[in-house]
Amino acid sequence: MAVFRGTGRMKNGWNALQQKIRNNRSLSLNLRIYSVPIAVTAIAFAAIGGVAALGHQYVQANSVDYYRVMLEGKPIGAISSKDKVEQLLSAKEAELRKADTPVLAALDEDQVSYEPERAYKIETDDEATLVRLEGMLKVHAVGVKIVVDGKDVGTVRDQKTADALLQRIKNKFAPQQTAKKSVPEVQSLSVKTTATAKAAATPQRTITSVKFVEDIDTKEVAIGGTPPSDPDKLFEKLLTGNPAPITYTVKEGDCVGCIAEKLGVSTDLIYEKNPWIKDDEIDVGDELDLTALTPLINVETVEQITQVEPIEATVEYQKSDDMRAGQTKVLRQGTDGQRQVTYRLVKQNGSTLEEEIVSQQVLKPAVSTIILKGTKVILGEGTGKFSWPVIGHRITSYQGTRWGRMHKGIDIIGKSSILAADNGVIEFAGYKSGGLGNAVIINHKNGYRTVYGHMKSVNVKKGQVVQKGDTIGIMGSTGHSTGTHLHFEIYLNGKLKNPTSYL
C-alpha cells in the first residue's frame, strides 16, 4: 500500500508541473524543450528513492530475529529464543535423572544446534517446536564407574549408589561416629585378670582417621546394553577379590607352622580361616581352608584406645643371715596398681599393622611384695629384677588377644643378640612345638621363669647356669613367626605375667 500511495503523489506532482509550464509563456523555447524533461526526471527519481528508503526502513523495523532448531543437523522447527530450548533440555535431563528405573538414561550430547535467522513479521510457533523436539530427543543408558588405582572394577546405577557403596566399605572397618566421641572397644588389647577387668573402666575407642589405601575415582559413563553391577556383589568383590577357594588336607608329620612354611602362607591366615584349631592340634585328614583374600580396596584406620590396665606387684627379696637357706618369710604382701594407657593403632581392614603407646598415667602405684630369704647362696638364683633381653629394644606387639588367640608375651626387635633377663639355670634349650620355634626357658630359682622364642640359633644348653646379660641366642623368625623378632614371656609360680610390668 505504501508503494501505490507514492505513485499517486508522483502523478499529481507531474500534472501540476505541466500546468505550470503551460501558464508560463515567458520561458524560452529551449527552457520549454530541455528544462522541463530534466526537472521531471529529477522529481521522478527523487520520489522513487524516497519511497524505497521508506519501504526499507519499514521492513527493517518489522523484521524479527529467531532461530532454526536443528536436531543432528536436520531442521525441526523455529524458536523465538534459544533459552526456551535450553530450559526444555535441562528439564528433560532432570526428569531422566529422577526416573525410578533400574538403569538411568541421559540425553545424547551436542544433538541440538541452532541457526540464527531474521524475517519480516514472522511469528514462530515455539510450543509446537518444543513438543516436536522433545519427542525426537535421543537418550542413552548411563552408569557410574568405580575406578581403583586406574583400573575399572565395576559400574553401578548412579553416583548416589557409588558413594553409598564406598561408605559401606569404610563403615565395615570404622563405624561412623560423632567427632571426638569415644565408643567402647569390643576387646581390650592387654590381658587382665578377672578381678582387675571388673575394676577397670570400659576401654574407650576413638577413630581419628579413615581413608582408602588405593586411589579411588568415580565417573559417569555410557554403558550401552550392559546392566550395572549388583551393589551387594560388587561389595563382596571389592572386599575379597573373589579368590578361588584353596584347601589343604593335613598329612602325616604336618603342623601348623610346617604347613605355613611349606605353602608360603602366614600362620595368622591359617588360624583366621580355621578357628576350630585349638592349641595347634590338627589331625591327619583334617581339611584346612587356606583361601587368601585379595581385597581390591583396603581401608586404613587410625584409632586411639584408652583403657585402664593393672600394674602387677613385683616381688623383692631381702636376704637375712638369721634364716636358714631355703627358708622364706613374707614381710609385706604386695598389691597391684593401675595405670591409664592410650594406644595408637594403625589398622588395615581391621588388622593391626602398627601399635604403640602414646601416653600413660599411673592411677594407683603398685606396692611390691617383700620376701625375706636365707643367705645361703643358691647357684643360678635370680634377683627378681629383670633387664631388657634385647639391646636397643622396641616393642612391636604387646601382650593380648590376636585372631581370637592369646598372645602370651611381647614381641621385641633390636640388636640381634638375645640376653638373659636375670640370673638363672637353663631349663630348656632347643626347638619347641606350639609355635615358639628355637626357644630357651630360664628357671630363675625364685618362682620366676622367662621364655625366649623364635631364635635363629641357641647358644646355651639345658642345665647351664647363666648370669643376667649373658648371650643365650640370636634373634630369628623360627616357628610361628612373620618376621625377625624376640617373643618374650614371664611367669611367676606358673602364672603368666605381663612383661611390661617387670622390665
From TrEMBL:
Residues 297-377 form the G5 domain. It comes from Cohnella faecalis. The keyword Methyltransferase does not apply. PROSITE patterns: G5, LYSM. Keywords: Membrane, Signal, Transmembrane, Transmembrane helix. One of its GO terms (molecular function) is metalloendopeptidase activity. This is M23 family peptidase. It holds the Pfam family G5. The chain crosses the membrane at residues 31-54. Residues 246-290 form the LysM domain.
